[in-house]
């Protein structure tokens, strides 16, 4: 299945990734485990970040994306939340965790673009960017795992969505090589894939 | 963006501090302005309340 097929199957609009099964699973982990200062990387529509903003033990929500339409969507969602008396969402256009200071976040959540994609079949728009994880499916996951430890506070945690299509063992090897312990906090099987959320701690 | 965000943002090129230059503000919300790398001198725009902290090579690719 190509990313485009998946996009059509999910009936998505073409500029911003809309919440799907993977988002719901990550949101479940966020509701159970997020606390303190929270960052969602690759926020898309900002829906997962909203679930964090509604939590009493979260005190700041930042949402980043490389896609300007996603940043706008997350910011608008944040304005609406603030008007309802919740925390807002601070949108930042960024490449992964690049522009965040060392030791800034207690919780970082990421649902990486993960569909393995044949380079000849890639299409060039924001939705491809939101779905395709390159040939291995780990094009964004790997550099994220390599750098995310830097921006965590002592005792901070990462909530990382991993699909069986991405290669579960390859991901956990990478995670361990960067000095993280991991546990699976939620898992669900679907016809095409098994989705897991790993909680990484140092 | 809220001004308090300055506590957690840094220059994506070398993780050094950024200086905030405000053009338009609405209460504690910065609507338009720039973030300037104190070491690199690189300028990152803030537009419609969203800071664009993509490194210059990714920003210029558009």
TrEMBL record, chain A:
UniProt KW Transferase keyword: yes
This protein's name: Methyltransferase domain-containing protein
Domain Methyltransferase small: 23-114
Source domain of life: Archaea
Entries under Pfam families matching the protein: MTS
GO cellular component: eRF1 methyltransferase complex
Keyword hit for Nucleotide-binding: no
Family, as annotated: Belongs to the eukaryotic/archaeal PrmC-related family.
GO biological process assignments: methylation
Gene Ontology MF annotations: nucleic acid binding; protein methyltransferase activity; S-adenosylmethionine-dependent methyltransferase activity
Species in which this protein is naturally found: Halogeometricum borinquense
NCBIfam families, sorted: hemK_rel_arch, PRK14968.1-1
Stored PANTHER family: METHYLTRANSFERASE N6AMT1 (PTHR45875:SF1)
Keywords of this entry: Methyltransferase, S-adenosyl-L-methionine, Transferase
Automatic annotation (TrEMBL), chain B:
InterPro entries, alphabetized: Trm112-like
Superkingdom of origin organism: Archaea
Record-given protein name: Uncharacterized conserved protein
Species whose genome carries this gene: Halogeometricum borinquense (strain ATCC 700274 / DSM 11551 / JCM 10706 / KCTC 4070 / PR3)
